[in-house]
Amino acid sequence: MDKLVERESGLRASRLAKAPALAVQFFLIPLAVVGVIVLVYGGFRALVTTERTPEEFLSDVRTGGRERRWPAAFELSRLLADPQTEVRHPNIGAAIVQAFVDSEGDDPRVRQYLALAVGRLNNAPPDAAGELVKALGSPDTEVRISVIWALASLGDPGTIGDIEAMYLADDAGVRKMSIYALGALPGTGHMATLRNALDDPVADVQWNAAVALARHGLDDGLPVLRRMIDRPYVERMVTLAPTPQDAIDPVAAVMVSALQAVAALGSGDLTDQIRALSENDASLRVRNAALETLDALASGPRQVGDAAQAIR
C-alpha cells in the first residue's frame, strides 16, 4: 500500500504522505497493503469521480449501501494524497476521524480505507492517533495493517509501544508493517525489536528490519542487506511476479531498497558486490541504483532519505 510521502520535518514522517504504494523513503512497503489497493482500484474507479468533494464521499461512507461505502472510503483516502484537499476543506480531518470511530463493526474495507485517510492528514486532530490505537485489536488483518501504517504516518512517538506489541502477531503482514512503522518513527528505544526482527522466519520482515536499522544509522542488518542484493536469492524469495501493468519489478524493488540502505550507512563492506551489480545486473534500475550507491560510498554516508525512492 506512495503516505508511508513526504513531510520530513518534525514528528511527521513526510515520506509517508502520498500513499501506501509510494510509501516511504527507502523502505520496503509490505506488498499486502499495496496489493489490496491495486486489485480493487480498477473495479470501482468508474463508480466515483475525482470531481466529488470529500464531504460527498463521507456522506456515502455514512449512509451509502454496502457496495458504495467502501469505494467512497477508498476514494476519500486517495483525495487526501493531495495536501491541498485539507487546505480547501479545513474541517475534513475531524470529520474523517469521527467517521473512522463510527465505522467500528462496519465492513472492514470501510475501516481500512478510512484509516489510510486519517494517516494522510497533514493536520490530524489531536485524538487521531488514540482512535487508531483503539483499532489495533481489530480481528481483520487488513484493518490492523492500515492502522499501523497510519500511525507510522502520523509520526507520534507515543504510539511506539502499541506498535511494538503488534510485532508479536502471528500474521506476517502485520509484523512487516509493524517493523516498517518502527523504522519510520523517531527514537532508539525500539531498536531491540528491530534487531530481533532480523531473525524473523519471514524474509521480507527481515528485509524491513535491516532497512529500518539502516535508517537509524545502525549496521546490524548488513548481512541481511548483503542477501538483498543477491539477485538469485531475492528471486527465490519474491513470489510476486511482475505483470505488464506493473511499473516496478518486485525483485528490483527489493534490491534497490537494499542499495539505498547501504548508501545511507556508508558501509564499504559490500563494494565489490555492488560494483558487479552496476556492471552486470539484468535490471537497468538496479544498475543505476548500484552506480549511485558507489558514488555515495566514495563521497561518504548520505543523510537518510537522500537516496530514497518510492518502492511498491
Elements, N to C (H/E): HHHHHHHHHHHHHHHHH
Low-confidence stretches: 1-26, 46-50, 303-312
Q: Terminal Cα separation, in Å?
A: 7 Å
From the spread of the alpha carbons, the general shape counts as elongated
Q: Helix segment count?
A: 17
Radius of gyration: 19 Å
**What composes the largest sheet?**
none
What class, by secondary structure content?
mainly alpha
Average pLDDT, rounded to a whole number, is: 83
Tell me the strand percentage band: under 5%
Number of strands: 0
Helix content: 55-70%
Written description of the protein model:
The structure is a single chain. With about 300 residues, the protein is mostly helical. It has helices at about 30-45, 55-65, 65-80, 85-90, 90-100, 110-120, 130-135, 140-155, 160-165, 170-185, 190-195, 205-215, 220-230, 230-235, 250-265, 270-280, 285-300. Helix 2 (about 55-65) runs parallel beside helix 5 (about 90-100), helix 6 runs parallel beside helix 8 and helix 16 runs antiparallel to helix 17. The chain starts with about 30 loop residues before the first helix and ends in a 13-residue tail after the last helix.
Name a few traits of the molecule:
312 residues; mainly alpha; 17 helices; 59% helix; elongated; disordered N terminus; disordered C terminus
Compact summary:
With about 300 residues, this protein is mainly α. It contains 17 helices and no strands.
Topology:
Elements lengths: L30 H14 L9 H10 L2 H14 L4 H5 L3 H11 L5 H12 L8 H7 L6 H14 L5 H7 L5 H13 L6 H7 L5 H13 L6 H7 L2 H7 L12 H16 L5 H10 L3 H16 L13
